[in-house]
């Protein structure tokens, strides 16, 4: 039996009885006095999310992503389908499909304020992939937006088998830090709906730098700009690449067309942005340490040196997930 499927909590149920089993689970919870959504409560579920765990997902990783989805659902009540492909050694060649269900409800300030999540875990063999579209469709809540999170796929070509999810989803979520190197060049059916979790995690950095620079005119920031360097730790290559792309787009909009953009590796936990200008008198630097949370902004755009302390952090996984899905 697939290890990542085993690593996830839940009660095993027949694949053909998922809906009935979920309804029975909530009935038992309500009968025991626990929080459960009313049958006719349309607000109990707001979104559909399909979390697809690729072959490179370990048991520990699968459990971590499951918990990220649970934390996300405490803010956005969800129906979450977790797809667990069988490993090669577990696949016996038949059209085998296994299912588990799991549910939680969290009460807010009143008993009427319920935040509920329903999980359906599906483990499937290679031969069963042809039936997956129908089974996933049955598991999803109707008339609600669908989001698809492709986690740790080993190769872009494997995504082609799930085009029905790529095409139907309002947003497709990937993490370019752990995805194939050419993931961004994949021919996505809806490229405008693609979101990178790395970009979302960097929201606090983008906000701090963007808000600071917005206090100066575009001409002051872009004029005579020669080099933009993003300094990063060895394990932050994806963050540096995404941050460099964001800076290039924003500075190009300010008419900084001749600037060179580059990346440089530095000591662990350090992330920095350095603007160098012709003549060497003007400058801008933002430096941050992800571990300590301390950062600093320094600049001189002609009005003297400015040095400001700041903080730095990355969004938590559940907040990065919501940022990627809704913004």
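Q: What amino acid sequence fits the structure above?
A:
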């Amino acid at each position: 039996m697939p290890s990542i499927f085993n690593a996830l909590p839940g009660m095993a149920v027949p694949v053909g009885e998922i809906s009935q089993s979920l309804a029975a689970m909530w009935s038992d919870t309500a009968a025991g006095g626990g929080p459960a959504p009313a049958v006719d409560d349309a607000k109990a579920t707001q979104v559909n999310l399909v979390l697809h765990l690729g072959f490179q997902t370990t048991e520990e990783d699968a459990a971590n992503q499951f918990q990220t989805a649970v934390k996300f659902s405490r803010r956005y009540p969800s129906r979450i389908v977790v797809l667990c492909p069988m490993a090669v050694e577990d696949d016996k060649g038949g059209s085998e499909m296994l299912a588990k269900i799991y549910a939680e409800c969290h009460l807010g300030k009143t008993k009427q304020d319920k935040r509920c999540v329903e999980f359906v875990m599906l483990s499937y063999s290679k031969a069963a992939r042809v039936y997956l579209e129908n089974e996933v469709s049955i598991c999803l809540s109707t008339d609600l937006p669908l989001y698809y999170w492709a986690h740790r796929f080993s190769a872009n070509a494997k995504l082609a088998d799930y085009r029905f999810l790529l095409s139907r989803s309002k947003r497709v979520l990937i993490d370019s830090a752990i995805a194939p190197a050419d993931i961004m060049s994949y021919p996505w059916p809806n490229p405008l709906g693609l979101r990178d979790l790395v970009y979302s995690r960097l929201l606090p950095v983008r906000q701090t730098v963007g808000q600071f620079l917005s206090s100066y005119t575009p001409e002051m920031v872009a004029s005579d700009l020669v080099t933009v360097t993003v300094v990063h730790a060895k394990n932050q290559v994806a963050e540096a690449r995404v941050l460099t792309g964001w800076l290039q787009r924003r500075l190009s909009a300010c008419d900084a067309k001749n600037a060179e953009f580059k990346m440089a590796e530095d000591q662990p936990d350090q992330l920095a942005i350095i603007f160098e200008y012709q003549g060497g008198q003007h400058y801008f630097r933002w430096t941050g340490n992800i571990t300590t949370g301390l950062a600093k902004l320094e600049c001189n755009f002609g009005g003297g040196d400015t040095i400001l302390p700041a903080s730095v952090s990355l969004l938590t996984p559940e907040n990065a997930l919501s940022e990627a899905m809704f913004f």
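Q: And what stands out in the fold?
A: The CA atoms of residues 222 and 252 lie 8 Å apart.
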